[in-house]
Structures are given as C-alpha cells and as structure tokens.
Amino acid sequence: MGETGLQLAEREPAMAPRRPRLAFAYRPAATESVFTPAHLARLDALCRVTDPAPLQDFSGETAQQALAEAEILVTGWGCPRIDARLLEAAPRLRLIAHAAGTVKGIVAPEVFAAGIAVCNAASANALPVAEYTLAAIVFSNKQVLRYRDAYRRTRMATRWEDVSRPDVGNWHKVIGIVGLSRIGRRVAELLRPFDFEVLAHDPHASPAEVLALGASPADLDTLMARADIVSLHAPAIEETRHMIDARRLALMRDGTTLINTARGSLVDQAALEAELVAGRLNAVLDVTTPETLPADSPLYELPNLLLTPHIAGALGGERERLGALVVSEIERFVKGEPLQHAVAAETLHLQA
To answer: What is the rounded distance in angstroms from the CA atom of residue 282 to the CA atom of residue 148?
Structure first.
C-alpha cells in the first residue's frame, strides 16, 4: 500500500524558509564585541550574509554589489549616513537594524518615507546608563568623594561627628528625574526599593504615567528646588538646550548634586562650572560640552565633581546585549512578527 500525502509530509523535511540577504555597515573597531560568534551564527542561520566584513563606505564597487542585494542592513557606530542615494543603490532594502542607540545622524527622513522598517538597540544601551545613574545617586548621597578625600588626607578613622551629619546618607532623600526617556523610566524603576521620594518632570508624560512609575509629577523649577539629587535624562533637542541654566542651578540647595548622563547641551556649562568651582554644588558628569574638555579645564581637578568620559553606556561585555537585541529583532522580522524596538519617524525628534 502506497504512502499517503500526510505520511510523506511527516517523513520529508519541510521546505526551509527563504533567507533574506543581509549586509553589515559600521566601523569594526567601534563595534568590537557587540556581535559575538554566537550572534553571528544566529544571523547566518536566519539570513544569507553577503559579506561578513562590514561596509565602511557606500561608494566602492564591493559596497554597491552588496547593497544591490541587501534586504537587511545591520548598522552600528561609524555607519555612513543612509539617505536617498543609498536607497537608490539598495532597492531591495526592507530593514535597518542599528546595533547602537540613536539613529538621528544615520537614518535620513527618506528612509522612513520609503516605508523601510528601522529598529535600534537603545533599550539595551539604556540599562547600563540607568545602573550608572543608580550608583551615582547612592554614592552622591553617601558623599563618598568627600569621605575618600578626607581619609586620603588624614589617614585616620572618620570622626563620630562626621558620620552623624543628618545631610549624609540615602534615607528619605528626594531624587529628581528630568526626562522620562527609556533611561529615565528605568532609573525610576531601580529606585523603587529605596527609601527615596522621587519627583519627575517630563512634558510628554501624563501624571498617570509618572505616578505608575512610583514618582510624583513636578514642574522643573519645583524639582530643582526640592531635590537632593537632580538626574538628567532628556533628549538633546532645541527645546532642551541649556534647560539647566544659571537661574535653575541657583534654585538647587547648597550641597545638592546634579547628575548628567544624557547630553552636555542640556546644561549651561559655564554656569555649572561657576557653581562647582565655588563649591556650592556637587556633580556627576558623564557628558560635557565639548564632549572632551580642554586639557586646562578646572573640572578635571574639582573635589566635588565625579567626571567620566562618556562611559555610562554599554562597555565591554555589556555591548553583547546590543547585539543580542538586534539579532532577536531580525529574527522577528524574518518570521513576519512585529518588531519590539521599532523607531518611529513621528517620535524620532524626541529621542536622544
């Protein structure tokens, strides 16, 4: 008796789904450790990789051949701008998967107008920034830098009167979050287990959204005046340029701390420098204007400032999280499932 169609289907392997063509475009040194061998193996199983070597410009013959076939373009730090000219060279392109944060300087409006899907790994990069911020809040309230310097100077145990000061510590401190971005929201979530009062200011978040995060809505001036710690998480747009100016810095009480892991342009740096040099305020700055300060800047030597060179985001092994997110997004796209980290043209201007 011959086999039925059902029996044949059970015995024969199902037809493998078509694998779309994929190309990479980024500066290899900048994207090192984002894609592990395991990530690349997953991509190879999902797609037909035109060339494992990433494109670093789109003008050469090799790049033109890869772009002509590419349906998915995996981008990262150092990727050339993707504009109308690129779209002409890549007529089959359907997805740009950016293995980093913002796509503002990379993806031109023509890409969205052409209906090409765009996703990024900003959510993965937000996690280490939020963790850095949490550490900065806890250490700032504990006045770790001041105690470190005193211990280094005296080589003696801390005096009882110093450990009894009511302004030191994390008990019932007021934390102000400016901007409920991905990072700002994650910071609010991380603060839940602590005995903090959290204030939040974001003109694009409703009072109900703020309350759901365990925070209280506040206008910016009230937040600046009440908070022991002010942490900035707003995007760098025209409306936020120097939003923390001399007047708002003056609202902060003596001895309070400003944390900036967002963008240097949010703060009038000359005004902040004056407050820090005077010793009235403290700060934790991972970003400044310019991004790398001049060698003679007084900010390098101030005892009331923790200054780091834009390291709050993904470092070392944390970068693997970016690659894992992008590979998962590509898998959803190949399977016809909705993207979880799509970038919308309508809200791009509100992102960092």
So the answer is: 15
Both 18 and 53 in one domain: the answer is yes
Out of 92, 192, 253, 310, the active site residue is 310
Q: State pLDDT tens for residues 238-289.
A: 999 999 999 999 999 999 999 999 999 999 999 999 999 999 999 999 999 9
Work out the end-to-end distance of the chain between its first and last CA atoms, rounded to an integer number of angstroms.
68
The catalytically annotated residue of 185, 201, 248, 263 is 263
Is residue 329 part of the annotated active site? The answer reads: no
Tokens 């392109």 correspond to what residue? 93
Active site residue 42: no
Residue 238 lies in a domain: yes
- Alpha-carbon gap, residue 63 to 249, rounded angstroms: 50
Domain contains 223: yes
Asked whether residue 310 carries a pLDDT value surpassing 90, the answer given is yes
Q: Is 85 part of the annotated catalytic residue set?
A: no
Count the domains in the chain. 2
Pull the structure tokens for residue 208: 């109900």
Q: Which range of residues forms the domain containing residue 330?
A: 5-120+317-350
Catalytic residue among 3, 189, 239, 291: 291
Tell whether omega for the bond before 235 is within 30 degrees of 0, i.e. cis: no
Cα separation, 141 vs 173, whole angstroms: 8
What digits encode the pLDDT tens for the residues 7-20? 434 444 455 568 99
> Which tokens in the block code for residue 60?
């050469």
pTM (two decimals): 0.91
**How confident is the model at residue 15, as a pLDDT?**
54
286 in a structural domain: yes
Location of structure tokens 């101030």: 302
Helix (H, G, I), strand (E, B) or coil at 116: coil
